[in-house]
Amino acid sequence: MTELPRKAAARTARLAALPLGYAGRTAMGLGKRLGGRPAEVVLSEVQQRTAEQLFRTLGELKGGAMKFGQALSVLEAALPDEVAAPYRDQLTRLQDSAPPMPTATVREQIAGSLGDDWRERLVHLEGAPSAAASIGQVHRGRWHDAVTGGERDVAVKVQYPGAGDALMSDLRQLARVARGVAPAFPGLDIKPLVEELQARAADELDYHLEAEAQATYAEAFRDDPDIVVPEVVAVGGEVLITEWLESPYSLARVVSEGTQEERDHYGQVFVTFLFDGPSRTGMLHADPHPGNFRVLPGADGGLGRIGVLDFGAVARLPEQRLPRAMGRLIRIASERGADDLVAGLREEGFIKENVKVDPEAVLDYLAPFIEPAQYDVFRFTRSWMREQFERINNPRNPSFTTATKLNLPSSYLLIHRTWLGGLGLLSQLEAEAPFRSIMEQHLPGFADD
């Protein structure tokens, strides 16, 4: 039976080789420079080869390796242009695909999860996967309803054998090699990204939790004019079956070749869903990479709805909605300035009483979340996103150390990462959206002050 490469030593060796490979190519590049090759040509060649090796390795290993790659792909818009160009094709490819596992393994996984009589309910299963991701792949099938006697098309999500062990092992190793990989991604802080993936890994392996979240979203968005969430049909162990969503492509295609009209339309639908979902469900869809958002064209191929997939990563919100304090503080920052923002942060406990901060540095650090709320319509661009990352990660900038002075509760960490990922996707789309009015309507606390 073919499955995820599970031997810890083999997986660890491949991941450990990533920073060594980057270092080796850099050394070779220096040699070519000394031999007279232009610096920009050598740099481009090193980055291109690094991209190919890095994302090919992450995709082939799947597990935590691919999960890490997908998380990086969401932030691709933040990479400097000279770095992003050779990486973009590899990143986009990773968002939508991965090498498949054999049909025989798929059937063994289904039998182990649904029982030996699974063929009485799942009366047809296509051999080739329709999609593959970090810990599982999806096959199209046909489901027989024993109560009604009817049949319907379904998506059969099957977890790779050994996915749990591979996921946790990969993330531990990636935490060790994060510093060595980081030079390939100037401006991105790799270590906290891996730590966040580690924190939510167990939930993503639990298909019963995922089914519960998806069923809640499907109920909340039933008959919505802009969003479609497939209904849950069955779940067991390492298999999750949902209604089939007929969609020709994901937002990754819109990112790479969409018209400006498509970018603006689907960007606005996406960001509205991101803010509206928590108030409807008490949860935040926390995996905003383009492959999870499928385009459903409207009549005559016009602009249509977005189908949302993959509810393995959700933040279950303590207040059953996004925190009111977050909306209130963003409104204060966008309208009243740095001093009032710091006073509000102290009042809410985000800055402890004895911690001294520079108000302007705090405002500068939070600018990516605040600036779009200051305009009736905001145009997200790759250059804007790069500017935010370069400024915040510049050691000479006073806001560089601000993060260490903020007391961010654990319940906010996944919200912060998701919002950042959402900004990354909007910047990849280069979408224009009425961000302020969306926040006024859907972000608790924003319209209060």
Explain what the structure shows:
- With 449 residues, the protein is of the alpha+beta class.
- It has two domains: 1-205, no CATH class; 324-442, no CATH class.
- It contains 17 helices and 14 strands.
- Strands 1, 2, 3, 4, 6 and 7 form a six-stranded antiparallel sheet that branches. It has a four-stranded mixed sheet with strand order 5-11-10-8. Strands 9-12 form a two-stranded antiparallel ribbon.
- α10 packs antiparallel against α16.
- The radius of gyration is 23 Å and the shape is globular.
- It starts with 7 loop residues before the first helix and ends in a 7-residue tail after the last helix.
State mean pLDDT (0 to 100 scale). Answer: 79
Helix content: 40-55%
Specify the structural class. alpha+beta
Distance between the amino and carboxyl termini: 60 Å
* Count of helix runs: 17
In terms of per-residue confidence, which ranges show pLDDT below 50 for 5 or more consecutive residues?
Answer: 1-6, 19-44
Biggest beta-sheet profile: 6 strands, antiparallel
Task: Give the CA-based shape.
Answer: globular
The number of domains is: 2
- Based on CA atoms alone, the radius of gyration comes out at 23 Å
Strand tally: 14
Percent strand equals 5-15%
